[in-house]
Amino acid sequence: MAKKLLLVGGGHSNALVLKHWCRHPLADVELTLVSDVRQTPYSGMLPGYLAGFYSYGESHIDLAPLCASAGAIFVQDKAIAVNPEQNLLTTAEGRQLSFDCLSLDIGSTPFIDDIVGAEYGIPAKPVPQFLTAWLALLENIDQNRPKKVTLAIAGGGAGGVELAFNLQARLAKLFPAMGLDMQIWQRGAILLPHHSVQGRKLIERLLVKQNIAVLLNHPVTSIEPEFSPDDNPLTCYKLWSNDHWQSVNAVFLVTQASPAPWLAQSGLSLDSRGFVSVKPTLQSYSHGHIFAAGDVANMIDHPRPKAGVFAVRQGKPLFENLQHYLSHQTLKTFVPQSKYLSLLGTRDGRAIALWGPWASYGHCWWRLKDYIDRQFMAGFSA
Length: 382
Known about the structure:
Number of strands: 25
CATH superfamily of the largest domain: FAD/NAD(P)-binding domain
CATH architecture of the largest domain: 3-Layer(bba) Sandwich
Shape: globular
Oligomer: single chain
Strand content: 25-35%
Largest sheet: 5 strands, parallel
Number of helices: 8
Strand order of the largest sheet: 5-2-1-9-21
Mean pLDDT: 95
CATH class of the largest domain: Alpha Beta
Radius of gyration: 21 Å
């Protein structure tokens, strides 16, 4: 009887498992992917898509033909529960899918539970809902042609900074005569707290140059609708940080990552924030037949930031260990790099390069980033 391998979520790691499976399939294994979306975004190109540098197709992986090439079943549905004792996955549409081995790669969403009125904000994830809200905002601006738009980004990490640069680029290109006030609201006293002093100083200079305001020690505590003045036909909101507020037209939430709430009832071993605790083999600490990668996983022995680069790096070792597990072979350990090159695209065909304490900025880094990202995506169409 064929063993059942269930890939849950179409994140980078699981997509790479499918890519490698196309070349090296395993006999007597029934492979299934469950994903709530068919088009899964590639995080490296998503900011460039927002800025207008890439098309939707260039920045997304179509999971259906990828599954077909791998001989896998594609189920477009959302996972809502897993029972690792009974080996059952439950989906939003009521499916009960059995498995012998499962790989979880469902990503994360911004933590917004401490923001009153968070439903008025636009979370950066899930990406499809974010893109829908962003395109609706662009259409609203196009129809009403306000003299000025004020946008706020809650979160001063790398994701929030890159989003600010690229949203500004898109709006400046589409509406060059419109005034734009772009703001980053950062909870803490410094921007990009997980990056070097040199990197922070470089990015702060670029933000000043691009007229992007940074409000430090400004945690977003509340969002509430506000009556729109006559000179601004767009919807307005009061954005509060404790007892201080400003009027904005949209709030993008790029706060600390949080896991899917249903994991808390899964019985899997979780860390203090609710992410799946995994070994260096990417196996769950509590259930060896459950693997996890990408944002949903926390490598307890080698903790790393929630970044797409690590999900990509986990792809091949995840593929190898899934096959080794199903073949009763010894699993390999994976140690993620402690330093990694971070490339943040900006609005002008240049990029910021960050490596440990070192930082640089220029056209060459954009060309490198573009090359790396296009090579990555080309691997899914070969």
